[in-house]
Amino acid sequence: MRETTGGTRQRIQAVALELFTEHGYEKTSLREIAERLGVTKAALYYHFKSKDEIVTSLVDDRLRRMDELIAWAADQPPTLATRRALISRYADSMFAGDLPQVMRFFEQNQTVLKSLVAGQQMRNRMMRLAHELCRGDESPAAQLRAALTLFAVHSSWFAVRAPGITDDERKRIALQVADELLAKIGENGQG
Amino acid sequence: MRETTGGTRQRIQAVALELFTEHGYEKTSLREIAERLGVTKAALYYHFKSKDEIVTSLVDDRLRRMDELIAWAADQPPTLATRRALISRYADSMFAGDLPQVMRFFEQNQTVLKSLVAGQQMRNRMMRLAHELCRGDESPAAQLRAALTLFAVHSSWFAVRAPGITDDERKRIALQVADELLAKIGENGQG
DNA sequence: GTCTATAATGTGATAGAC
DNA sequence: GTCTATCACATTATAGAC
């Protein structure tokens, strides 16, 4: 619709994401990306005006979804049911398409991504999401539990080593553990 | 004892760790480290024979402590009491000296550190530690809970935003949440 | 133990032909 | 839409003076 390219832009994104995730953003050079695609660096610069614009293009769609999610949550009452629905929706969007890999890339390159606008935006959205997850209980323990809930969804991809496990099972387990953590938010007594 | 230097080696380590953590390993140049110390790059090469040897020197002491911890755990019975003692000891060593910063550096630069021996070793120790934390219950949920337990200790440093909170309080909260997660390991019925 | 100087290489990015 | 050629610069690392 908007490009006459035969998917070259998408192929660049796919290869870049793979290399960024595998070797890190800084360590992956444009030459490496171009070589793997069988094109030249100049070809890359036709589609993206800089290296970090590739990251931006990768993250943009994810950012939109997170914004929708945060806006939705802000409109709900701060109850356990809302928190559970929020993490469930988040998991749904995490386990779709290549977004898990985008999140893995983001999580394992946080320091470097601090200097990129796209990285700062992702960071900001994660913090706001965590904030929504413990709305009504700003105690330190609640904040920690909220953060762990998000991490549970992310890490179910690599922390769980089981032969033949399906994506749906990973998601189910992540949500099970997340629900237990969320249930403790709002119980203001500690200990 | 082994160096006649007036702590230059230590000063290099301190500045390198700070910059690696702040900007990332790849993005931090030796020139930058040398400049901040008021010496030249060549001076760095007198103390460390390469850039990644600085990382090695930073991680070595941490690796030793983790090895001790893993060996200790392997000698204990696989009970809840052992798991709790293990995470408590881990937290103690985490909250001492500049080790928290080393762990933060490690966690936020994982992808890049994969290509460094020191990084692979740290990764290996973390996995073994997680394994010890769920020994006797290798179910996916248990694996996830064990990983989250470690992350609870690490993330209590940045996930909890509270004015004037002390290190001891952070540790206490991390262990409280960790204990709850560990208590669910070994209950083989899954809700 | 720290310096100057420099080698050798790789990087992101641009200009302009086709 | 992709190419060749090249720029300007930063990088790790080394050699050798002091």
UniProtKB/TrEMBL annotation, chains A, B:
Keyword line: DNA-binding, Transcription, Transcription regulation
InterPro entries membership: DNA-bd_HTH_TetR-type_CS, Homeodomain-like_sf, HTH-type_TetR-like_transc_reg, HTH_TetR
DNA-binding region boundaries: 29-48
Domain HTH tetR-type, chain residue ranges per copy: 6-66
Matches recorded under Pfam families: TetR_N
Alphabetized GO MF terms: DNA-binding transcription factor activity; transcription cis-regulatory region binding
Keyword Transcription on entry: yes
PANTHER family: HTH-TYPE TRANSCRIPTIONAL REGULATOR BETI (PTHR30055:SF234), HTH-TYPE TRANSCRIPTIONAL REGULATOR RUTR (PTHR30055)
The protein's name: TetR/AcrR family transcriptional regulator
